Amino acid sequence: MIDIHLSTQSYATAHVDLLLVLTQNTNKQGTLRELDRHLDGQLFELIQHDDFKANDGQKLLCTTWGRIQAPRLMLFGLGEDFNDSMLEWRQAVAEAIRAASSEKPTSIGVVLNGRSGDLSATVEGLTLGATLVAYRFDHYKKPDTLSNNLESVTYFLPSRSSATVKKSAQQSLKRALILAESICAARDLVNAPPNELTPTEFAVRAEEMAENVGLTCNVHGPDQLREWGMNLFLAVSSGSVEEPRLIHLIYKPKGRRKKKDDKRVVAFVGKGVTFDSGGLSLKPTSAMLGMQADMAGAAAVFGAMQAIAQLKPSVEIHGYIGATENMTGAAAYRINDVILGHNKTSVEIKNTDAEGRLVLADTLSYAVEQGATEVIDLATLTGACLVALGQWTAGLMSDRQDMADAVLRAASQVGEDLWQLPLPKPLRSQLKSSIADISNVGGRFGGAITAGMFLREFVSEEVDWSHIDLAGPSFVDKDLHHMKKGGTGYGVATLVQYAMQEANS
């Protein structure tokens, strides 16, 4: 990751390659007036000559003629509708840094023209935008093909900032860096090729991460899964030579907890199919491309637990990852099989490409057995959700509206698009089986919803449950704002915000 710094030093004397000024207007006041004075009155002449109006995404690049330390200056417009939220800052600084990258700076100084409303939101947004847009997954590239990456960004606070303001800004910076590092860790997992990130390797990385941040990590292999009757999970793995792994990450707060948190045990459960061929319901080649990303839900749980261990909410939180491949070997499970799950629910298999819900089913019931009082599961579960909501929005399903509201609120605060879908009871009939308790797919219509309904069967009624289908925003095929092509790390920020807001409310 790039280095992010806060400074009350004068931006005019800072040793940076490029000074980036984010502005909503071109009024002759504030930072622009100061810069114009430094540049002997030439800045406003350039603004007028280039018709720079600070429109959203508009930029003006010029030399500083040696009048300030930075050799180049870029003005970047925020637009008059800019609303000062953390998401807006994240997107704006990401676009600004992307625009400045054509100048190949190794260091950038960021200055705001005008006052920011919420300093915490500004610093966190700037930090996340800068770090996430600078992310690269270039592990397999030859060194001579790599671009010259940005190394550092300095955000200049007003020179007269009080000690309290400086402390608050530093705390915001620390939180944002922890979150950004965790999102990038999730991105690395999603982007890793399937011959590298096998279920076994996933478990190794989880153990290493847990040791680094102070989590407990328990890893269970096929023998334990068989002993516990996790036959749905095992069925999905049966066609692969790679062994499955159930990864259990545990965070327990130290010291005295708030009374309301004493009996709360939050579980985050992630689908970790490290490659999905479709099994015997084999996908065509075009649909198989990108199926190393079918573990994005598990990556979100991994990243969230990494951040939570460092941010230390007051509630106990467990992360469960069901890691396996879905392949077509001689022992692969079949259409028409009937399999008994961990919670003694029998499932008729009607499509082996509806495998993620089988892995989640056993993992969810195990999490409940381990004492979870509320559960959020995340999965790249259905193409139907992508069709319904598009590429940028995940779907939320829950039969506990107060919990759904809390999850939606968390997602909104961190700028992750999430939309609640209904759970209409008549659709439940599509999951009926004539020979088993339930079938693993419903009919043609409402596929994302019936998948959610299937999962609810494996969570006890007394346990609060929410399901996030992130098939759309977990992986993107082009850069957008702070999201880079490939894995996005979607879900990490929402889970962390949920953990922190619920613990602190």
Description of the molecule:
This protein starts with a strand and ends with a helix. It folds into 2 domains: 3-179, Leucine Aminopeptidase, subunit E, domain 1 (3-Layer(aba) Sandwich); 192-504, Zn peptidases (Aminopeptidase), CATH 3.40.630.10. The model has no long low-confidence stretch (mean pLDDT 93). A hairpin with an 8-residue loop joins strand 3 (59-63) and strand 4 (72-77). It has an 8-stranded mixed sheet with strand order 7-8-10-9-13-17-14-15, with helices on both faces. A 6-stranded mixed sheet has the order 1-6-5-2-4-3. The chain has helices at residues 30-38, 42-49, 86-100, 119-133, 163-191, 199-213, 222-227, 231-237, 285-288, 296-311, 356-369, 383-389, 401-414, 447-456, 492-504, and strands spanning 3-7, 18-23, 59-63, 72-77, 107-113, 152-156, 216-220, 245-251, 265-276, 316-326, 338-340, 346-348, 374-379, 394-398, 418-420, 438-439, 464-469, 475-476, 486-487. The radius of gyration is 25 Å and the shape is elongated. Helix 3 (86-100) crosses helix 4 (119-133) and helix 4 packs parallel to helix 5. The chain is of the alpha/beta class and 505 residues long. The chain contains 15 helices and 19 strands.
Fourth CATH level, the homologous superfamily of the largest domain: Zn peptidases
Summed up, the domain count is 2
Roughly how much helix do the residues carry, as a percent range?
25-40%
List unreliable stretches of 5+ residues.
Answer: none
Any idea what the radius of gyration is?
25 Å
Distance between the termini: 32 Å
Say how many strands there are.
Answer: 19
Largest pleated sheet: 8 strands, mixed
Percent strand equals: 15-25%
Task: Return the CATH architecture of the largest domain.
Answer: 3-Layer(aba) Sandwich
Q: What's the CATH class of the largest domain, please? A: Alpha Beta
Number of helices: 15
Mean pLDDT: 93
- The CATH topology of the largest domain is given as Aminopeptidase
Question: Which class do the helix and strand fractions yield?
Answer: alpha/beta
For the largest beta sheet, what order do the strands appear in spatially?
A: 7-8-10-9-13-17-14-15
**Given the C-alpha coordinates, what overall shape results?**
elongated
